[in-house]
Automatic annotation (TrEMBL):
<dbReference type="InterPro" id="IPR050300">
    <property type="entry name" value="GDXG_lipolytic_enzyme"/>
</dbReference>
<dbReference type="InterPro" id="IPR029058">
    <property type="entry name" value="AB_hydrolase_fold"/>
</dbReference>
<dbReference type="GO" id="GO:0016787">
    <property type="term" value="F:hydrolase activity"/>
</dbReference>
<keyword id="KW-1133">Transmembrane helix</keyword>
<feature type="domain" description="BD-FAE-like">
    <location>
        <begin position="86"/>
        <end position="185"/>
    </location>
</feature>
<feature type="transmembrane region" description="Helical">
    <location>
        <begin position="12"/>
        <end position="34"/>
    </location>
</feature>
<feature type="transmembrane region" description="Helical">
    <location>
        <begin position="169"/>
        <end position="188"/>
    </location>
</feature>
<dbReference type="Pfam" id="PF20434">
    <property type="entry name" value="BD-FAE"/>
</dbReference>
<dbReference type="InterPro" id="IPR049492">
    <property type="entry name" value="BD-FAE-like_dom"/>
</dbReference>
<protein>
    <submittedName>
        <fullName>Acetyl esterase/lipase</fullName>
    </submittedName>
</protein>
<keyword id="KW-0812">Transmembrane</keyword>
<keyword id="KW-0472">Membrane</keyword>
<keyword id="KW-0378">Hydrolase</keyword>
<feature type="transmembrane region" description="Helical">
    <location>
        <begin position="223"/>
        <end position="243"/>
    </location>
</feature>
Amino acid sequence: MHFYLFAEGFTQAVRTIILVYFILTFVFTVYSVARMYYFEHIGNDVKGGRARMKELQAGGRFIQMPVYSMEEMAEDKHKRDVRLMYFPADEPRDKRFAMVLPGGGYAHVCLKEEGYPVAAELNKKGINAFVLDYRAGRDCEPFAPMEDLGNALRLIQEKAEMFNVSLDNYALIGFSAGGNLAGIFSSHKYGYLDYQLPKPGTVILGYPWTCVNDWLHHPYWNIWIGLLGIWLSNRGSFYMFGLRHIRKGRTMLDVQKYIEADYPPVFMYSGSWDVLVPASRHADVFDAALTTNGVKHVYEKYFGVPHGIGLGIHTKAEGWLDRAVEFWEKN
């Protein structure tokens, strides 16, 4: 009695198995990516963010300004689009503020999805918020986003009276690549110390892209998702460091290597169904590094939640920002 699969020989059977594998994993990947975009659509309150901006504009309270001076922008054209947007709370509970850093893989900045809606939600909680549009894509260069963040915070410090805020116990809120930016900036290298700024009071991270150099070490059972990981890891490093130094760049963007005992308290969340930035090779690894160094932190991981959900409305992660703000207030 012969097993049907091997009826035409072992070689043909192996070919059939490989073909079925490629087809099934491709279908699963397409489904996972489509599912991600669906949850991005329902999880990010894009309309709410836009409405809050229009409300502030109508009242003459929305402030948008370039981070760099005219001289700096004339000298370096890539700095021309770096801008800071201020979302003041109607009744601020104090002078603290949060700097929101959207993601985008250092290829672009997801302001509408992970910037404005988060700032609007913070305003509802009585918290002043800033959103930074940092250099990305062809405007990027080595550690340019960190430089943009440092100079943006300096600008806030210089105009603290106008904004009615203080850098005492400020928070950085970063998503995906914005989490990479916030994570590195909060360390001793390429961060706040280079700009004579106070250390962030709390770092809040959503599905952070932290272990950039680790894509080859992850045991991807799905080759298509593996290719997505390779593309993402190399894309961010390419834009920041160029093709010649892409490998070195991946190493330099590995946030875990910058963690020390005096790292700020961290609140972090991620999802188990993240095909772009797998929690097992990013948030989980970052969580282990924080634990090893004795850094106070909270890590929430949600089953079945994908990448790019921002506020996480209509997902298992909904309400994470409330808990993150509570964590910030206690520290």
